[in-house]
Amino acid sequence: MATTVKFTLDGKSRSVKVEDPAMPLLYALRDDLKMKAPHFGCGLAQCGACTVHVDGEPVRSCVMPATAVKGKKVTTILGLGTPEKPHPLQTAFVEEQVPQCGYCVNGWMMTAAAFLKKKPKATDAEVREALAGLKCRCGTHVSIMRAIKRAQQQMGGAA
Amino acid sequence: MNAPMDFSASRREFFKASGALIVSVSMAGFVTEALAEIGANKPPLVPGELDSWVAVLKDGSVSAFYGKIDMGHCLDVAIAQIVAEELDVGFESVTVFQGDTATSCNQGGASGSTGISTGAKPLRSAAAEARRILVEAAAKQLAVPVDQLSVLDGVVSGGGKRVSYAELIGGKFFNSKVEWNKQVGNFMDIKVPAKLKSPSQYKVVGRSFRRRDVEGKVFGTMDWITEISVPGMLHGRVIRPVIAGAVPLKVDVGSIKKIPGAKVVREKNFLAVVAPKEWDAVRAAQTLKVEWSAATNPYPAMPKLHDHIRSAKVVKAETETNKGDVDAVFKTAARVIEAEYEWPFQSHASMGPACAVADVKADSATLWTGSQKPHYARDGVAVLCGLPPEKVHAIWVMGPGSYGRNDGGDAAIDAALLSKLTGKPVRVQGSRSDATAWDPKGPASVHRARAALDASGKVIGYEFISKGFSRVHIATNEADPRDSLAGQELGMPTNPVEGFGTPEDNYSFSSRRMGWETIAPLLDRSSPLRTSHLRDPVGPDVHFGSEQFIDELAVATGEDSVAFRIKYATKPRAAAAIKAAAEKAGWQTRVSGTAKSSGDILSGRGISYTERRGTIVATVCEVEVNRKTGRIWAKKFTVAHDCGIIINPQGLTQTIEGNVIHGLSRTVLEEVRFDANSVTSVDWASYPIVDIQDAPLSIESVLINHPEVAPTGAGEPTIRSIPGAIANAFFDATGVRLRTAPMTPERVLAALAAAR
């Protein structure tokens, strides 16, 4: 039996008809709502490419059922910031020219954004711990760390 | 190889067709507009036409048509710099169109670090030729001799007069021939009457212009191949057998009947499901009941892999270097040192499973592909569908990473076959397992090294022989569908080619021999352990052995590893790079393995020096080895990199950094696991790669610029220097050699225990 799931997506009210209760949120976002940024990387919550915020918490949308976001606030990277009004992490990732293929970058920025909100003055070691498990196959890790440091400085965090 | 053909007649229809079909490919849409402005009667898209390489639009902006692609290494920017330089236009006014068979000639796609070294050559010549023609036209129009004219930002001036490129030719074709060298692929080049600029005149080349794809990636507005959507499109998933080599005997179509619109598609042993919604295709693939043929145990027990390689019959052997009388020298040597090294199967394991969208019609086809060789993908789809290549339009769209012949080539053929069989546009994206377990693999290998020393300790003989699976059992591109899983499932005979590689011949030992031997594939069709090109094909594999062995010789002769390399390095540029890396890293001169540290954390430093087709890299790595857990942490890398002239320093630096981390991952973690039936590395848990916790604290790059030397490439040369640098640092820290990669905690603990 299809159910309709209503939720807020990047500040706008949206609804999706869900046929299979097991369908992950990622498919509702990508296939039904044509959201580009959360990517399918593994479908197993092992890489983070599909990360979105649900009520401010980073979640792996490839394993969270779409029905679980009923009435909640879902934020994608489009809701994080725009070229006109960028999130400090987006500015920093551009400044540091971080992504190569870029398929993973959504996961790094969304996870880091949620973490820095809680702990803007996090040390490098704490940042690394918070980002553990995310994958990047092009090997941009060092520039990711540079960009996060830069964003922290802009946000008035780490010196 | 297919020679490009004249298909000007059908090109415009392709533009119209693709423009109408594309829902969200802004880039391809822009190609349509830009070229529509130039209008009809474009000369045929062949390398011998200047118009195939550059165009000046009405507003004076320049389009450059690049038959390769960039995946985040700044190549398109470098091409724009080179074109701007030769044409004397502003960098910002050059747009580079890449990887579209309707706008570019087949320059081979991403391949062999040739994006600039060979890829920029025809574009550079074309830009110079365009400038020559435009300046001559200006001379006529202004009645000022050519030698009194100069060009700045696309405006020709002299004798108090001026005229712009836009006024001279904007929106029109050059209709001018250039001399094509008749090569297709990486070595396609042209000759022109125009004189190229000397590097001493460069103003745009050599500067760190920023990449053009970063904002779209960071703000989530860019389309990867996975975002391509075509009206009426079905989602497809191909079903791979549970046991390698098994074929479907019975397929229970009824098992997916409750899933809306889901259908089974089968042609011979090719089995797939399609559905209008992606999730429905995914769950249909998971739900479909299939009875497979019985196991034939195609693979050896994994711990016996390297024994299998040692004992397997040699299919092809080749000696690539043979100087002096190696055999005689070993007979008279005062001392012989021998060692053997092992390298595993490795996966591309791209960030996301490959994706492709195909729309195959009776008389034409369109393919959107993340394959790094879109022109060859076009050729493969043409063969599969029985269409002439000029009736297939392949459009490259950024994929989820690509480091050689990954699953992108299979996805392209899968999508085309499914579209052909269903009569609808079909999008294919595999599961994680399709990307990790089923991509073509980097070959496993064994490397035998020996050296002959005279009584004074001088190395007088050297031999390095590799034995392994061929790096081209599957071709490096998908121009022939029999090199794809789908083709093989359709029953096309495979076409394994034998090829491996050796270290670069870069040490001056007076007698030396380097060669390789290949062995047969483990399974002759649709094998998840079939082997093909993985970033710097066999480079990291070979140099894990050869650069450790050089260090073993240094230690055996009581010499410092940096000094030993400089002593035997053949080229002054190599010695300079080794010195630069050592100096920047603060290298402490001593025999490696002699500074014993105590406690649980052992520290060490190692160096490696490698070359790849002219590019010289010296890397110093500093490691910490935890002797309780066996973990190696490569804390810092210092890379001295000499690839001739540097086009874009920031792009180069970040290309080096990516190489370092990819190389680190392959050295300490990556190993494709398998059992008798199939590959068991199916995801990130069973095929671990480097984590942010494993990443070094810093990577220092020393960029050595040689403006007088033609560029030799940077996409891969650094990665081959990483395994040796790490392994040598590990030895320095522990006094123990680990000759089997990857250097996992289990192997480290075993090696430390054995040495106790």
Q: What is shown here, in short?
A:
By secondary structure, chain A is an alpha+beta fold. Chain A contains 6 helices and 5 strands; from the N terminus they run ββαβββααααα. The model of chain A has no long low-confidence stretch (mean pLDDT 96).
Task: Explain what you see.
The complex is a heterodimer of chains A (159) and B (756). Chain A has 159 residues and is α+β, with helices and mostly antiparallel strands. Chain A has helices spanning 25-32, 77-80, 88-95, 105-118, 124-131, 141-154, and strands at residues 3-9, 12-18, 51-54, 57-60, 73-75. In chain A, helix 3 packs across helix 6. The radius of gyration of chain A is 16 Å and the shape is globular. The mean pLDDT of chain A is 96. Chain B is α+β, with helices and mostly antiparallel strands. Chain B has a seven-stranded mixed sheet, with helices on both faces. In chain B, helix 14 (539-556) packs parallel to helix 18 and helix 15 packs antiparallel against helix 16. Chains A and B meet through helix 1, helix 3, helix 4, helix 5 and helix 6 of A and helix 6, helix 7 and helix 17 of B.
Q: Please write the CATH class name of the largest domain in chain A.
A: Alpha Beta
Reported by name, the CATH topology of the largest domain in chain A is: Ubiquitin-like (UB roll)
Give the overall shape of chain B, derived from the CA principal axes: globular
* Parts with pLDDT < 50 across at least 5 consecutive residues of chain B: 1-32
Number of helices of chain B: 19
Largest sheet of chain A: 5 strands, mixed
Order of neighbouring strands in the sheet with most strands of chain A: 2-1-5-3-4
- Helicity level of chain A, as a percent range? 25-40%
